[in-house]
Write a structure and sequence with these properties.
Beta-Lactamase; 121 residues; single chain; alpha+beta; six-stranded antiparallel beta sheet; globular
């Protein structure tokens, strides 16, 4: 899957039926698929530009940046991590596949998510 520009990659994500997130190397959320927004009850403007740590429970916030670093530097391809929905009480228990995408000399982390369970706290 090759993309000629970051815009083309973002358009692929927004038109996808899959649960997808796109991060830059600093863990900033660059794009989110509509199905993922729906599952988490956010709108796009609330997530784009925020840190990946904002959508994970507090006990996971230190792990998330490390997982992104591992994906980029070490080629780690999976991450089982919980996501916190907008209400702050609903947790999506997931299995995530991490894929590196290179566009215009930059490397991005595309995360494809499968929800295994939903927990309410």
């Amino acid at each position: 899957m090759g993309f000629n520009s970051l815009q083309e990659l973002k358009e692929h994500i927004t038109s996808s039926e899959e649960l997808l997130l796109l991060y830059n190397k600093d863990g900033e959320i660059l794009e989110v698929s509509d199905p993922m927004l729906s599952e988490m009850s956010y709108n796009r403007e609330e997530l784009i530009g925020t840190s990946a740590t904002e959508i994970h429970p507090s006990f996971y916030k230190n792990i998330c940046p490390e997982k992104i670093r591992q994906a980029i530097e070490e080629g780690v391809t999976n991450c089982d991590c919980p996501y916190v929905c907008k209400d702050g009480k609903t947790y999506l228990i997931t299995e995530s596949a991490l894929k590196l995408v290179k566009v215009e000399d930059e490397t991005y982390v595309l995360v494809s998510i499968e929800i295994l369970d939903v927990k309410i706290r």
